[in-house]
Amino acid sequence: MQVNIGKNGITEGTFELLQNAFKNNKDVKISVLKSGGHEREKVKQMAEEIINKLGNNFTYRIVGFTIFVKKWKREMRR
User: Which among 44, 74, 70, 43 has a CA at the least distance from the CA of 59?
Assistant: First the structure.
């Protein structure tokens, strides 16, 4: 599944969408659009915020301006 983050950034609606997406999918691709901010540091901050809000069962990888989030069956150590 793919989710886009635009000029409004990460909202409560985004988290609801992600939680629903992980009910059926193990991996979700989150694209940060130009209007969402095309700065590498900002994308990393967004990824950290998403993972912190979702919980310890999730990890992420950033490629360009895309965040790939993966759900694991057991909690990940940090």
Answer: 70
58 C-beta neighbours (distance < 10 Å), count: 19
Q: Name the burial class of residue 47, with classes exposed (0-12), middle (13-18) and buried (19+) by CB atoms within 10 angstroms of its CB.
A: buried
Alpha-carbon distance of 40 to 67, in angstroms, equals: 11
Helix or strand or coil: residue 20?
Answer: helix
Collapsing DSSP states into helix, strand and coil, what is residue 42? helix
Distance CA 36, CA 42 (A): 9
Q: Write down the pLDDT at residue 36.
A: 84
Express each pLDDT in 30-78 by its tens digit: 999 998 888 899 999 999 999 999 888 899 999 999 999 999 876 656 5
For domain 2-71, the CATH architecture is 2-Layer Sandwich (3.30)
